[in-house]
Amino acid sequence: MKSEPDVYGIEDLQRDGQTFWGGVRNYQARNFMTNDMAVGSQVLFYHSNAEPPGVAGLMKVVSEAQADPTALDANSEYFEPKATPENPIWKCVTVKFVEKFPRLVSLEEIRKNPKLKDMALLQKGSRLSIQPVTDSEFGEILKMARG
DNA sequence: GCCAACGTTGGC
DNA sequence: GCCAACGTTGGC
């Protein structure tokens, strides 16, 4: 999952303990949350639009996808006029802080690692704020973070 | 249903 | 700040 550290970074999550991943407004990204994440799922926290960009830490899903309250809030920048409590359209998971990596695994390093060449993150034009990671990719990132 | 125009993302 | 890539919108 990507977030801009200037807006909300791994240290903000460390301070908060857990957070509701609200405001996602892309159907593919939403579907990853509703279909592919469950309580206990491990998630990499990626710092986008950062210097340098890269994977900053680890978190874990503590609540499956639920209605995104920002979609129903007329004062929110994420307000969705078509959303109703019965059909909120947008949903999001709650994640908790697990760890901040001892060092950032930068996008550049990820690019250089042949084992990670197929990561969704590296595919051309890949901009989704939530992307799938395979078990082996996940393990490799952890190894790099701790290596 | 097509597609041009527009907005957003995010690395550089 | 630039711009490639992509998603969304809305007129037709």
Textual characterization of the structure:
The chain contains six helices and five strands, in the order βααβαββαβαα. The mean pLDDT is 94. A five-stranded mixed β-sheet has the order 1-3-4-5-2. By secondary structure, it is an alpha+beta fold. 29% of the residues lie in helices and 28% in strands. It binds a DNA duplex (12 and 12 nucleotides) through loops.
Q: What's this model, at a glance?
A:
By secondary structure, the chain is α+β, with helices and mostly antiparallel strands. The chain contains six helices and five strands, in the order E-H-H-E-H-E-E-H-E-H-H.
Helix fraction bin: 25-40%
> How can the largest sheet be summarized?
5 strands, mixed
Provide a count of the helices: 6
Question: Which residue ranges are poorly predicted, with pLDDT under 50 across at least 5 consecutive positions?
Answer: none
Secondary-structure element sequence?
Answer: EHHEHEEHEHH
Radius of gyration: 15 Å
Cα(first) to Cα(last) distance is 22 Å
Number of distinct beta strands: 5
Overall, the morphology is globular
Name the beta content range: 25-35%
Mean pLDDT: 94
Strand order of the largest sheet: 1-3-4-5-2
Helix/strand/pairing category? alpha+beta
